Amino acid sequence: MRVRTGYDCDVLVIGGGIVGLSTAYAITRAAPGTQVTVLEKEPGPARHQTGRNSGVIHSGVYYRPGSLKARYAVRGAAEMVKFCAEYGIPHAVTGKLIVATDRAELPRLHALVQRGRENGIPVRELGASQIAEYEPEVRGLAAIHVGTTGICDFVAVARRLAHASGAEIRYGTRVVRVDRRPGRGVAVLTAAGDVVRGRVLVNCAGLQCDEIARLTGDDPGMRIVPFRGEYYELARPELVRGLVYPVPDPAFPFLGVHLTRGIDGSVHVGPNAVPALAREGYGWGTVRLRELGSTLAWPGSWRIARRHWRYGAGELRRSLSRTAFTDAVGRLLPAVSEGDLVPTAAGVRAQAVLRDGTLVDDFLIREGPRAVHVLNAPSPAATASLPIGREVARRALNAL
């Protein structure tokens, strides 16, 4: 056992989402006997990004060849299916359609075909008449079918990772202060007044990751700007057989409003992407002035607004108007009506933004003395969580 007198654990992980729990799992697999403690401020695992997404196991077709997202999503998708099968977690490999509904989208659709092939993903190109083979109610000019996309219950995955890791997991434990001494280790103070000591800190705090980095004494060089994704559930799920996506705009790390038949048979529609007024702002009524002030004080936030105001205005319109949202969905699914859309739980994307307004497009992992910080891990991080966890574990064990 590695722990020495004066330490509560070898590796102290902050954050009990799927990335933090995968990291704990990877550490104990790679170095049996290493003591890991996970601190999670919520009363259970996977309460934010992990538990509030559409449950898609992404193929990796969208991501720049050679990027961490591309490599980890392709690898992670296969590993996630295997993990779910091994532990009896509900999942299915369904495939998905990416559909062009406007001629201007056709070049981007063809570029996705090429990108998918560069990433080693089988892609089938479809003409307009072939779309109905997969989705009889969907209309478009052309589409691609990606066979390796799937769905699963990521909350169940997170729970299994927590159990299988053998880590000590402390729920309801919010970190308020970090004292790092590079020659010795880290000590964190919790909101309850407890002190937890470890030799190395791993920051997987998601929506709060930049705050934890600063508490540790490291400059993250970015700021989390939260974007809320609002979802509806389809009252007539029989309209959709599987997964249907629009052609995404390559200028943004968002995939657009899509249709997802989940593992429970319900069909989710969404998300859009609007600025959240709090880090955990799951509705317009949730406003936290300190967090909002932090976002507005970051120069990158204003640069995003100036650069992409037209895109943002469209997203806001769809947030405030169900008619506008229905119109967006109707481009893919003409049979849908306003009455078919039933509001359901929203999610918030922890999007890292640089000072110059750049939306960080890849996973971002940085290190400081006795610390590893995961600073950008939105979608497809759930899909890629097993490879991400191994990479973070490797760095943490090196720091030991």
Structure description:
With 400 residues, the chain is an alpha+beta fold. Helix content is 31%, strand content 27%. The chain has eleven helices and 22 strands. It has helices at 18-30, 68-87, 106-118, 131-134, 154-165, 209-216, 289-297, 299-307, 309-320, 322-330, 385-399, and strands spanning 9-14, 36-40, 56-57, 91-93, 96-100, 123-127, 142-146, 150-152, 168-171, 175-181, 185-190, 195-203, 222-229, 232-234, 243-246, 258-261, 267-270, 274-275, 341-343, 347-354, 364-368, 371-376. Strands 1, 2, 9, 10, 11, 12, 21 and 22 form an eight-stranded mixed sheet that branches. It has an eight-stranded mixed sheet with strand order 6-7-5-15-16-17-14-19, sandwiched between helices. Helix 1 (18-30) packs across helix 11 (385-399) and helix 9 packs across helix 10.
- How far apart, in Å, are the first and last alpha carbons? 13 Å
- Which structural category fits the helices and strands? alpha+beta
Tally the beta strands.
22
Give helix % range. 25-40%
Low-confidence stretches: none
Query: How many helix segments?
Result: 11
Strand content: 25-35%
Q: Please state the CA-atom Rg, rounded to the nearest Å.
A: 21 Å
Biggest sheet features:
8 strands, mixed
Shape: globular
What is the residue-averaged pLDDT? Answer: 95
Please summarize what this structure is:
The protein has 400 residues and is α+β, with helices and mostly antiparallel strands. The protein contains 11 helices and 22 strands.
Give a topology summary.
Layout: E1 9-14, H1 18-30, E2 36-40, E3 56-57, H2 68-87, E4 91-93, E5 96-100, H3 106-118, E6 123-127, H4 131-134, E7 142-146, E8 150-152, H5 154-165, E9 168-171, E10 175-181, E11 185-190, E12 195-203, H6 209-216, E13 222-229, E14 232-234, E15 243-246, E16 258-261, E17 267-270, E18 274-275, H7 289-297, H8 299-307, H9 309-320, H10 322-330, E19 341-343, E20 347-354, E21 364-368, E22 371-376, H11 385-399
Parallel strand pairs: 1-2, 1-12, 2-9, 5-15, 12-22
Antiparallel strand pairs: 3-8, 4-8, 5-7, 6-7, 10-11, 11-12, 13-18, 13-20, 14-17, 14-19, 15-16, 16-17, 21-22
